Predict the 3D structure of the following.
Amino acid sequence: MENVHLAMEEDDLYSGYNDYNPTFDSEELENDVGFQQAVRTSHGRRPPMTAKFPGTAIGARPLATSFGSRIPMVSSMGRPVTGAVQDGAARPMTAVRAAGYTSSLTRGSTFDPLGQSRGPAPALEAKNEDTPEEKIKILEKKVNDLIEESCMAQSRGALQLALEKAKEAGKKERALVRQREQSGNADNINLDLTYSVLLNLANQYVNNEMYPEALNTYQVIVKNKMFSNAGRLKVNMANIYVKQKNYPKAIKFYRMALDQISNAHKEMRIKIMQNIGVVFVRMGQYSDAITSFEHIMSESPNIKTGFNLILCYYAIGDRERMKKAFQKLISVPLGIDDEDKYIPSNDDTNSNMVIEAIKNDKLHQMERDLCVDMVKSSQYVELANDLEINKAITYLRQKDFNQAVETLKTFEKKDSRVKSAAATNLSFLYYLEKDFDQADRYADLAMNADRYNPAALNNKGNTVFAKQDYEKAAEFYKEALRNDSSCTEALYNLGLTYKRLNRLEEALDCFLKLHAILRNSAQVMYQLLLEDPQQAIEWLMQVISVTPTDPQTLAKLGELHDSEGDKSQAFQHYYESFRYFPSNIDVIEWLGAYYIETQFCEKAIQYFERATLIQPTQVKWQLMVASCYRRSGNYQKALETYKDIHRKFPENVECLRFLVRLCTDMGLKEVQEYTTKLKKVEKMKEIREQRVKSGRDGSARSRREGSAGSAGDSNSTKGERLSAKMRSLPGSNEPYEASSPKEIDASYVDPLGPQMERPKTGAKKRGEEDDFADEELGDDLLPE
């Protein structure tokens, strides 16, 4: 109880709450000599303090505590105050050692954490090429280069040079082996390099028909047990024996290679067995050849082996087995559809020539007619009509329209279902040929045969649409949709019809329904373009995601961005459109005008030169080329261009005006000549205009008076001729390029309008892009 004191008897209960640590005294920092010295100096050059005890200017002030004691405090954590020292030693600074500081820094030392004061790094030591390792590396590189040069020479057809390079590579490789042995690195011989050298040498011997040398080289590789999978080269050796007509030896090596190739390499084993069979055929051992070919046809049948097997059976006179072999042969997949095998490819010229040669040969005629004839004579006679329809469709895919029409016309006297199918396709063909009367006739025939045929109703609507009777066309499309709600062609055409009738809400409803069915149809998305440019841009971006290389869509995007004032986006889309289709004159004109507007006249020249090639009779493109040269400061080239234009268009006023201006500015003597020509052309032009005007006045006066006299008719006709002639001549206003770039007509005329708004037919040719995407020809005409 001695240590227990009552608050009322001794100390104040709240004493000590106003005491604080001097470390946190910010009011007295101005009087703290150590702190002020640290502020004025860097951390590394801080001078040591002379005080014996750490503290601040107010450090000697006693601090009251709750127990009434007065204890001077150094800091709250017991560390020295900033700027102070203890016993003459610098305070440790390990907390910032990673930044380049150290505890041993003294006055006068510099702060250099990157070590820049030590000067530049010493120069790299030169590579010593005299060491054995470097010599070996250099020699290896030379060998590899020689092998590559040998292969490149072979690819160019320089077989002798390829052989010489291969031999030189062999010499270098042997020198490399000796170099390794002398340096004590015989265990590190590059076996892959040795194998490459020997294999390339053997191949070059074969290419030069030096077969004994090639066999010896292959033998070196095969006998070396260090080369893995070298046994496969026995196939190459067997091929050489075949060329030498040493067939027994070839068979032996083929079989040795076959034994060394595992079953995992099935394709290679099949090829070797096929070679064995061919060699047996050349030896006249047909039974052995048959064994090889039969094994191949059971494991991996192919056309060549099947044909060789039939020949072997023919050679031994076994007709029954020939029939079975033929059945196996025709069951081998060709890798192409039967419908496409006679359709020429645009890429392979040789294949196209072969297809043209066999398209109408006797075998093809038998193939084309045999199936139909056999079905007609069987109990499945009803299928013969469908086969005939399919034959007509095949003619369409081969673009043999006359044969297709003749085949389809044979169905006019058939039963109703077949007649409707044939008439639908005939209506489709005549519609594509713009023979709308015949198209309408066969559409009626198809409808009379089968009123519920949606394709026939769709084609009938198309013929009425072509006659601009849109209300009636809409009724036929609606009837087609009532018969078959999945007839997307009729739904698309109904939307087009509503657009022509200016019933835009109903048209939009049709295209939105169609878009829900055909999400990736570019044609449908194009029809969804609205008057709002931003929404139109969004739809066109979806079109681009489906057809990213469509130049017309890209040009339309450029037009919309241009109308919105976004020149950079417009330029990007116009440029992409030009890249995919560099003959669109509107795109070319816009790009040229863009470069003129952005003061890059040199770049605009190439576009106007292309426009000149596309429209050589339009003088304005050539004037624009000359103007670009003039704007870019190339006056000599501009003068030459204007002279060339004057030779082609001697009566062009704008060209003569600029010739006069340029010759005057350049001080040329030709200025007088061009001035005289300009005055003459302007006078002739004025006379023509007066004649045209008088002719028009006379014609109007005669019409008002009701005169039908010959003089009036003559004046009118003459005036109209002069008017037409004057319309073909350039105007007398300022030259085309004299206007500001913004005045250049770079507007885009929608090229998709008449094509995209063409109604869809009930059938479609293969490759037609203006009907309907992904639509199969006559799907509704074939049996279920």
Summary: The radius of gyration is 48 Å. The CA atoms of residues 452 and 483 lie 6 Å apart. The domain at 132-331 is CATH 1.25.40.10 (Serine Threonine Protein Phosphatase 5, Tetratricopeptide repeat). DSSP finds 33 helices and no strands in the chain.
